[in-house]
Amino acid sequence: MILPIVAYGDPVLKKKAKAINKDYPKLKELIDNMWETMYNAYGVGLAAPQVGLPIRLFVIDPTPFAEDEDLSKEDRDQLRDLKKVFINAQIESETGDEWAFNEGCLSIPDVREDVFRKPEITISYYDENWVKHQDTFTGLAARVIQHEYDHIEGILFTDKLSSLKKRLIKGKLANISKGKIKIDYRMRFPKQKIAR
Questions:
Q1: What does pLDDT average to over the chain?
Q2: Which among 13, 20, 53, 136 could disulfide-bond with 48, CB atoms 3.0 to 4.6 Å apart, if both were Cys?
Q3: Residue 94 annotated to the active site
Q4: Band (74; pLDDT cuts 50, 70, 90)
Q5: 3-class DSSP state for residue 22?
């Protein structure tokens, strides 16, 4: 089932998400719905807060980037078949010199900006079968994971922009939160205060 993606301005996107356990209700169904929602919106990652749930769960499938000839062969190989579920993820380390890449977000449509992130991360997490992993990712794979991880920490990519960039996109963000945008996937907008 395709779920509505929560738009910028909804408080759930700014909440630090809570860990879950194996007994979380309908977890498999939720994960399946998140995959369907992400693919329907042509995304490469989706976090539970983006579908209105403040829990530590996100999914990624950056396979489309594996066809980008501008990336190194090592980067493309790592991105191929990297479809993964991350439950209760914890970044253990982020290393290297920060690099910029133009990021966007399904919750913030039509806004893309360069964001600086470290190129290598080590992350511990459970997969959908509750098997614990600790893996290291580099390059674009690390970036996709960092972006989704930020969502479960209550951080949006726009929070990482300079104050000048934030001022320049302020109007666009206000329009998104008011639902004044054209998109081709389901979204849920923050409730507007009714003027009296």
A1: 94
A2: 53
A3: no
A4: confident
A5: coil
133 is in an annotated binding site: no
Distance CA 86, CA 57 (A): 6
- Residue 87 pLDDT > 80: yes
Structure token digits, residue 130: 């509750």
Angstrom CA distances, 142 to 11, 118, 173, stand at: 26, 8, 26
Predicted TM-score (pTM) of this structure? 0.94
Judge whether 101 is annotated as a binding position.
no
Per residue in 142-176, pLDDT (tens digit) is 999 999 999 999 999 999 999 999 999 999 999 99
Spell out the domains of the chain, with CATH numbers in brackets: 5-184 (3.90.45.10)
Of residues 74, 98, 113, 148, which has the active-site annotation?
Answer: 148
Please report, as a single letter, which amino acid is at residue 196.
R
For residue 51, the tally of other CB atoms under 10 A from its CB is 23
